[in-house]
Amino acid sequence: GKDINALEQHIKNLLSPSTPFFFNTLYDPYRVGADFVRGYPYSLREGVPTAISPRLWLNIPDYDAPTQLVKPLERNTRYVDAILTIPKGTLFPTCGMNLAFDRELIGPAMYFGLMGDGQPIGLVLQPFDWIKKTFFEKPQPEA
């Protein structure tokens, strides 16, 4: 693959709109020259503010700790040329090692708690995904 500046890409992601409620199989409809796929609702094409830009990293797949122990030599060798967004109200796994977020939209939801009690493998808990889902986009003004 080609070289990529992860910090620059995170910033571009956060400054670009997200596509809510419908997955656009063209991945980044806001890229210069891109279009929306057939059937994508016209009313949603303006997008919503992007709150989180997750997982721009190489060499370590985003596995949970037990899977990493079972597959210690598995590696990512390239970035996927795709911008994916997750709509409000959706749970999703993410890794805090390479994550950018808009703190005005997320606020205190990006909290990393310690794991331990009853957990067979101790590590830092990933961001509370169940909290992030409720802060994923700014409330839209009522018409």
Automatic annotation (TrEMBL):
Q: In terms of one coarse class, where is the protein primarily found?
A: Golgi
**Entry annotated with the keyword Repeat:** no
Write out the GO MF terms.
UDP-arabinopyranose mutase activity
Question: Which InterPro entries does the entry link to?
Answer: RGP_fam
Instruction: Please provide the record's keywords in A-Z order.
Output: Cell wall biogenesis/degradation, Golgi apparatus
> Does the record's keyword annotation contain Cell membrane?
no
Tell me the compartments it is located in. Answer: Golgi apparatus
- Protein's name in the database: Uncharacterized protein
Higher taxonomy = Eukaryota, Viridiplantae, Streptophyta, Embryophyta, Tracheophyta
